[in-house]
Amino acid sequence: MEPDFKDILLFKTNIQTADDKSLIAKVMEKHKIKQWTIDQQDVDCVLRIVSPVLKLEEVIHLVSKNGYQCEELI
Fold this sequence. Notes:
about 30% helix
């Protein structure tokens, strides 16, 4: 089943290295966020999360408190 577009959250980040991605993977797992990707080839290091329950502000807070920049990608 394809996700509803309103459940897809996109963020500009500075998650650039394999170590960065590994750390964020642990954070996502801890918070039971199962559907996420980071496009480290993109200049904006786009973090994509599919969730019907998470809000933009929650993700920004979660990523930021772990030392990374995170803002909504418009």
